[in-house]
Amino acid sequence: MITRLMTLCLGASCVAFAAAADLTPVESEDLSVPSGQPVEFYENLMDRPAMGLTARFRFVAPELRARLSQMSYEELEADLSYLCQSYALPRLSQPKPVMVVISLSEQATEFGAPSEDIPQVFEAYRPVVTPAGEVCAWEAF
Fold this sequence. Notes:
Elements: H1 2-21, E1 30-31, E2 39-47, E3 54-60, H2 64-70, H3 73-88, E4 99-105, E5 120-130, E6 133-138
């Protein structure tokens, strides 16, 4: 009984550690996007919602609030699409996800926790292999 309880506690602390580790950026990296706004990689998460294995690439864009009032949707989507194509696709591993979600946030936030005061945008893409190579195809959801 004591061994089972210790194993359960050890497993629970490993889960807690893994959850905390997911909130820590792997390595800060400034990226260049078409709009010119500063963007930095924050974290990558994998999950399996109803639509299948999904890779989430989260980025911090400190000027997002100001940029949202100045940019068209097309300009914003060009940044998100660029991050999918140039950053996310080369970093996908096996098994390949069926969906890639790219998100921009004004500052780092906990995944899944509402942050009403922090602007956030996201878009979903499906990795598609074409004769020219793999591309991010916009996915309506």
